[in-house]
Amino acid sequence: MGVNMVEKFEPRIVGFLCNWCSYAGADLAGTSKLQIPSSLTPIRVMCTSRIDPVLVLTAFLRGADGVLIAGCHPGDCHYDEGNYYARRRFAIVKKVVEGLGLEKDRLRLSWVSASEGQRFADVVKEFNETITKLGPNPMKKEASL
Amino acid sequence: MKIGVYICECGPNIAEKVDIDEVIKAVKPLDNVAVVERFKLLCSQDGKQFLADQIKKHELTHLVVAACSPREHQQTFMDVCEQEGLNPYLFQLANIREQCAWITDDKKEATKKAIRLTKAAVARVQYHTPLEKQQIESNPDVLVIGGGIAGIQASLQLAGPERTIHLVEKTSSLGGLSQYYEKTFPDMKPCASFIKGLIETVKNNPHINVYTNTEIEEILGFFGNFEITVKQTTTPEATAAFEVGAVVVATGATPFNPEHISKYGYQKIENVITALDFEQMNLSGKITLKNGKPPKSVAIIHCVGREEKGYCSQICCMYSIKFIRYLQKKVPSTKITNFYTDLCIPGKSQQHFYEQSLGNHVDFIRMSDLQITKQSDKIQITYSNEKDASKKLSVDMVILSPVLEPTQGLSSIIESTRISQGEKGFLTEEHEKIAPVSTSTEGVFIAGCSHGPKSIEETMSQAEAVTGHILTSLIPGQKIEPEVKVSHISESFCIGCKTCLNVCCYGAITFDDLKKVSVVNEVICRGCGNCVAACPSGAITLKHFTHNQVYHEVKEAVQ
Amino acid sequence: MNKKEPFSDILVVGAGIAGIQASLMLSKAKKNVHLIEKTSYTGGASIKYEEVFSNMECSTCMLAPIQQQLLQDKNITLHTLSTIKGVKGSQGNYIVTIEKKARYVDMVNCIGCNACFDPCPVSVKNEFEEGLNERKAIFVPCAGALPNVPMIDTEHCLRFKNKKCTACQEACMFEAIDYNQKDETFDIKVGAIIVATGFSLFDTQKTPHYGYGTLDDVYTALEFERLYASNGPTEGTIQLKKGDSPKSAAIIHCVGRKEQGYCSSVCCLYSLKFTHYLTSKLPDIKIYNLYSDLCIPGKSHQKFYEKMKDAGTTLLRADAIKVEKKGKSMEITYTDENNKKTSITVDMVILAPALLPHPDTMGLAKTLDIAVDDHEFFKENDTTSSCVSSSKPGIYIVGCAQGPKNIQDSVTQASAAVGKILSSS
Amino acid sequence: MKKSIRETIKDFLMKAMEKGVFDAVLIPMKVPAGDSYVYVLIKDKALVKDADPLPPVMSVQGGKAVSSVTRLGKGNLKIAAVMRPCEVRATNELEKNEQVNPENITLISIDCPGVLPLHDFTSNPEEGLAVFEQAEKKHDDTKMRPVCQICDNSSLIAGDLHIGTLGAAKDSVFLIAHSHKGQEVLQTLQLSSKGSLASWKKQVQEKVENKKKQRSMTHKQLKKQIGGLENLIDTFSRCLNCHNCMRACPVCFCRLCYFDSEKVKNVREDYMQQAQEKGTLRFPPDTTLFHIGRMTHMSVSCVSCGACEDACPVSLPVAQVFSMIADETQGLFEYLAGRNREEPLPMKTFKEDELHEMEDAHD
């Protein structure tokens, strides 16, 4: 077990990014060559409103150490209102997770615009730190999940 | 299934940051992966040719490219697929440059992430299905609601041998408000006569059907295929029905009625008239008081109703200044006083027009708390200005320049087209900046003062802008090609809870009352996927972003 | 009625938001479009803004998608660094001579990795950032610029000053950098021309009493836009030249209005927008708006104005404004609405200058043989009908090239020109 | 005594049918075997006397019954549906989801003493009845189902008409109209709730207050018990994945449950991969996903009626856990499922300015 202790923990973070704002922001972070932890794997969706609770839960139960949903700032949604619905759905998942005494801090919702490359970098860095503190998601190894 | 996976070195950009051989090693053994190769630069001509040859050579059924952001070259590679007869939606691009190679200097990290991203793309692409562009018949004809200058201009520019325009006007005559204006600002060009001319051209145009005294009863259908029913206001049982591909709402605006604001004394004090009264008086040829004499002094009150309505109508200052010109021409000796709060004369020619209108008989006073009362045979105006409160001025005639309000009675149009109305009652554009004349309902456009108060100039531009949109999207003889990545509702799983109807802000979902299920209209759907996440039964799938496709991406992301 | 078969292609001059809108619409109608742009990038002035009034929407999020669409559109040929040298013919049959300056970077080979910037030994002020930071002699104006392909500025590049520098070429793995590229001149045949050359700002040096150029922390509106921009020189941190953040700021409206003799119609609104910029980054900052007549026309703008007022700005009706140094900060003296001389002290001054025609307007007007007005904006043929028809049939003027206006009206005019072209063809 | 209250209620219903206020009554009735109760639609008013408006168990949730009668549109029968407050709330939730057409339905609720666990009752009906009668008389809910013991909405009025028994004089009940429809009924029958409601309100308030206390206490304990990954897994490890809880749930109205659909069925390779990651993989799989997933799907509509727990063959505390989570998720939107048929479903709407605590901190 000592080995496990010293073994470096590399978080696995699933990042649902909306095509119009946050994915563009992430690209901008890239073109600006900002240093960002590689722990986040971006998954492009057209709008954050596409992300249903079950997708988030599946990622979470499948052992994702963190799940990030990032979309256009309120009012900027490419589809007018999508991100408002997304926020409600996310709130429910987070409440349920919290209510069951699971680690709600592994779920995060952020607004990142297409011009906020730096902000995207900061969000990922922050989240990565949070997750590193939390350590690996125990669910990953849980046989009865 | 034969998946080809190709990793782009992007010169040093990826090659130096990612150990591509490691990626190849990790991807090769995956099920259904027929071939994995690296290439110097896949977006180059050679690169595209290379991919094309590979697709042929290995008879690939699916293609995965690990390179730059989809925002850069997704289209490029989809085109290659298309050329090779591979459905472009059987392709997936893994972004291992912007969001991998470029954000870390740690090669091991980058390589691991590149492997995750590529595996995710491979996992995802296996669940892709070919998507085909649909083509939908459409009707090039257009319904124009409102026979004001906006409606007239739109009709004239749209009408043609292959396109019939149905111009519906609520009142008995075409022309709208501006038919009462003798001249326009800022260059005092003739207006009323100009409009008369336009109306004649409309009447003589064989491709424009004019319906006066007519209202909209119902608008059914969607972009390309609307079914319209109109009814006569004079004899309501008399209705007509026709089909069009697009709808233009040009219902205009009406001047705010100051009658109920006592301080203006309108309808109570003689010779207190509104701008429209004055325009008509001026058009009739004579500017006189009730007693037939010409006014020796006139006050023009700006911003009437602005406080009540909560917005600036942007043209009141300008037409008030135009009134100075009218007066200077017809009753030269008159003393003219303009009472204003903020002089709103935006635009390159407006200030010049204002300056040209000044003269020894003309005053501009910035006022507040104004009050109009009767004073024997004259009218007294009490007001405060910068320096002192309750100053007085008595005049023969007062012209009130009221704000513009949206025309009332649009509910049937708004409901049946599902366009929305802002808090001030004006119609809401699709996007304040980049889509000002289209609405959230595809194929329904707005022009002129129904959209917001504006000058004839801007009204014309909007009317022409609308024709621009219609002429580009509704071409006679051409079918409409709706978005491919749209939602689809499974009839057998839908329970008819209508949640999707509630969350769709494009009105793309309708309810089939017989089957008690929701149905997506692919012509209107924009493919955001909101309804998918909203559906409790999981009866809705968004093409190219299906649960399975996303799930398998997620699954690999946590490895 | 042309005897000749009219050319079906269309020329659009200027790849700002109006030019882009027109091009995309024409392409949708299956027209081939030549879009020429003087600079090396698309998006014009609007991509310099972080947010746009009145919805405070992120400008990049609004524009990037249509810029991408433009670059991928097969019916549109984008010629950057290009200008019109000459025009022959008439409506339906224009033959336009285009001069395309060499970019010295191959648009096809370059993949936008930016590897060529660092090795470049030259550093000069970055015009795009209003000189608030520096760029190399090979550069893209800002991160996220589209097309994401740099250009070489021959005015500063050592190599073009007969020095032997090949730093960028060595750094490029794609043989994208080609010093031997030549400026080219070629003809295109088009049926109609849309002129969307945009605006420039009033030169605030001409009004020294506002202290621009002499006082450190007096900024123009565009400078301030870039200061707030998250992809700008300070990544959106609003700071004074010395680096500390201002405790108070004054926004002076109508700069150059007297000199120009017209109201630019957007200054009051974007000045109010700055209130949001400032308070969102510096919640406790004290803000003054010094204006003469508040011009906020339209259905939604008064509400916006009220919102901004609540956000925390003091509106002062001011005349005879003068800005002077006072200790660490600045003193603004002015006469208030009761003609009383008063003054305020602030750390930062932002000037809202009038919108002027693009400097090339006169030249272009001459080349195209179309009329301009007293202010040297392109002159519309007739205001009672459309304002987008120039004095010459087949040539249309849209956006701020025709007169100062906001994005909405520019886009509307662009669409209107398309309407005119398609209904006449 | 209470028996006579039942009679009073039935008399009222029969009178109403006589007067043609209702053409039929949808009401629970003991099954011939005597070991359970079901909802019956009574057309012949004479048969109403055999019904039991307050059965000791809830073997069918009334909401489901109303839904099956009206889902495909209003019938021409005017029906009175007599049920418990939580059943009325379920009906309202179903209406918001277009699963109930309320037009010809009059929803009548009764102060609810709670019900016994279904298993306990069916195993020994006679004893069950006795227990229930005692419990009702003594206002003692210790034998009732756990969710009933912590129900703070047992007198909540969400329908058209409510029958208050608490604080009522002998043989009499309070008739409380809660909608135009309800008022009409009382008017046509020339009835009005005798005297003031003061005594009823007082008792209800007392009951609600101490139930609220109990509820939060119990939920705190429950959270300790099942909270956290280990406990959660222990709690649900018995789950057979039979999905009975979902089938019994009144607000689970889907034709095919999301969690029975292909969407959550993984391909073999997938299970292999999971087994590899975890070392072993439990079958049936994804039981936890099912329960947590269901919470995200319908906890905002959960009325804590307990039907799911009755339906569970391995007696998981499903209802208790759901009621706990429901309080949290509904709290997000200051929503109480079924309380008010006008209140829009949280998932069908949004506010521009809300839930900022859910977003990460940013300028």
What is the strand and helix layout of this fold?
The complex is a heterotetramer of chains A (145), B (559), C (425) and D (363).
Chain A: H1 2-6, E1 13-18, H2 22-31, E2 40-45, H3 53-61, E3 66-71, H4 82-99, E4 107-111, H5 117-134
Parallel strand pairs in A: 1-2, 1-3, 3-4
Helix pairs in contact in A: 2-5
Chain B: E1 3-8, H1 12-15, H2 20-27, E2 33-39, H3 45-57, E3 62-67, H4 70-83, E4 91-95, H5 107-125, E5 142-145, H6 149-158, E6 165-168, E7 183-184, E8 189-190, H7 192-204, E9 208-211, E10 214-222, E11 225-232, E12 239-244, E13 246-249, E14 253-255, E15 272-274, H8 275-283, E16 297-304, H9 306-309, H10 316-330, E17 335-340, H11 350-357, E18 362-366, E19 368-375, E20 378-384, E21 391-395, E22 397-402, E23 404-406, H12 411-417, E24 444-446, H13 456-473, E25 487-489, H14 499-503, E26 509-512, E27 517-520, H15 530-534, E28 540-542, H16 547-557
Parallel strand pairs in B: 1-2, 1-3, 3-4, 5-6, 5-13, 6-9, 13-24, 15-22, 16-17, 16-22, 17-18
Antiparallel strand pairs in B: 7-8, 10-11, 11-12, 14-23, 19-20, 20-21, 25-28, 26-27
Helix pairs in contact in B: 2-5, 3-4, 5-16, 6-7, 6-13, 8-10, 10-11
Chain D: H1 2-18, E1 24-30, E2 37-42, H2 62-70, E3 79-83, H3 85-96, E4 105-110, H4 118-123, H5 125-138, H6 146-149, E5 161-164, E6 174-177, H7 180-188, H8 198-226, H9 229-236, H10 244-248, H11 268-278, H12 287-298, H13 307-311, H14 318-332
Parallel strand pairs in D: 1-3, 3-4, 4-5
Antiparallel strand pairs in D: 1-2, 5-6
Helix pairs in contact in D: 2-3
